[in-house]
Hints:
Helix content: over 70%
Structural class: mainly alpha
Pfam family, one: LrgA
Subcellular location: Cell membrane
Order of helices and strands: HHHHHH
Radius of gyration: 21 Å
Transmembrane segments: 25-45, 57-77, 83-105
Strand content: under 5%
Oligomer: single chain
Membrane topology: Multi-pass membrane protein
Number of domains: 2
Number of helices: 6
InterPro entries: LrgA/CidA (IPR005538)
Amino acid sequence: MLLGFLILLLCQLTGELLMMTLGLPIPGPVAGMLILFVGLLLYGSVPRALRVPAEGLIRHLSLLFVPAGVGLIQHFGLIAQEWLVILLTLISSTFVALFVTALVFKALHPSSSGETRDG
Length: 119
């Protein structure tokens, strides 16, 4: 179990160091997850030493939302003042994300020139 946590932390540390060194605007933990993903692809499966701590972290994932909830409560006055801007930003960013996703899908999906998959 300790070996699994060590692997996870080393991947995160490697991602942090890589992003600091390269100066890329990608969070270190995201780069660490990519490093872990590539490592698992090359290994071919998830080793038991890594599976056990990962399942434990996933089992208690809901605890990671507690700080966000506390932050919402702590800054409730500011949120109450700026609710309209927050709402408009959430709605517009959702539509932008949907639009960009549709463009990427259209660019990557081969056109079928009117044919259906069924026949």
